[in-house]
UniProtKB/TrEMBL annotation:
<dbReference type="InterPro" id="IPR002347">
    <property type="entry name" value="SDR_fam"/>
</dbReference>
<dbReference type="GO" id="GO:0016616">
    <property type="term" value="F:oxidoreductase activity, acting on the CH-OH group of donors, NAD or NADP as acceptor"/>
</dbReference>
<dbReference type="InterPro" id="IPR036291">
    <property type="entry name" value="NAD(P)-bd_dom_sf"/>
</dbReference>
<keyword id="KW-0560">Oxidoreductase</keyword>
<dbReference type="InterPro" id="IPR020904">
    <property type="entry name" value="Sc_DH/Rdtase_CS"/>
</dbReference>
<dbReference type="Pfam" id="PF00106">
    <property type="entry name" value="adh_short"/>
</dbReference>
<comment type="similarity">
    <text>Belongs to the short-chain dehydrogenases/reductases (SDR) family.</text>
</comment>
<protein>
    <submittedName>
        <fullName>SDR family NAD(P)-dependent oxidoreductase</fullName>
    </submittedName>
</protein>
Amino acid sequence: MTFKTAFITGATSGIGKATAEILADQGYKLILCGRRADRLERLKEELPTEVHTLTFDVRNQAEVDEAVATLPDHLEIDVLINNAGNAHGMAPLQSGDVADWDAMIDINVKGLLYVTRAVLPGMIDRNNGYIINIGSIAGKEVYPSGNVYCASKHAVDAINQGLRIDLNGTGIKVSAINPGLVETEFSMVRFKGDEDRSRKVYAGMDALQARDIAEIIAFMLSRPAHVNLADILVLPQAQASSTIVSRK
Ligand code: NDP
Ligand code: 8X3
């Protein structure tokens, strides 16, 4: 199975950006998405492949549909990496911020659904495609004050399984990769720019890097048509669970 064109949401930083870099080196044409247009334009200049950028907020279904509809005909999406997402805040439910909850559910769950719904018809017509959903260890476990973020990633886990059932019998693969601690802009977003708090998340241990996840995604895509790495949990060696992390 050879894929040619990958659509990556959340390509402006972290895991999405690293995946764009690896797939560009492998000759994929790329459709890169995010809200920060300047970063997307920079990637378009830097990456050694054809790059089409789409600036939209995954929360806005009309924007998602319009962006996908504007794609040139020669860019037939055969890989969708549903990566856009973040945690917003970390607090016990009883003191949680409702705006943070809305952001996580709207981006991590509804946004992933909107993008998938917009991209799938073309894949189904061509009977060919691969959807990789970026879940999390937070979709497999719940940890203190993780409540709504964990719920959003448990939803991704359920959507991943449900989509694989719904697409069974088509030529489309559906997989999830569920990382533990990856050192990206994730914690800066979660802790609203608090650098000290963000740094402590990865302090005293070798966290995963975005490139580690991107390499696994590239490996998943390189498997033959009959092989689907359906659900992968990947942790730093120092992490045993969401709450058990050994630090030097
Ligand atoms: P980053 O903060 O580095 O990247 C998040 C990406 O998502 C950015 O490109 C951002 O682009 C995009 N994004 C966020 N909100 C929106 C939105 N409303 N509309 C469109 N794009 C959006 O974090 P990571 O790379 O770590 O996160 C990527 C995925 O990996 C997420 O789904 C996250 O939950 C998951 N994950 C992360 C882990 C970690 O420890 N870092 C571990 C497990 C899973 P822009 O701001 O330009 O819109
Ligand atoms: C990100 C990993 O442990 O911060 O999904 O939830 S964690």
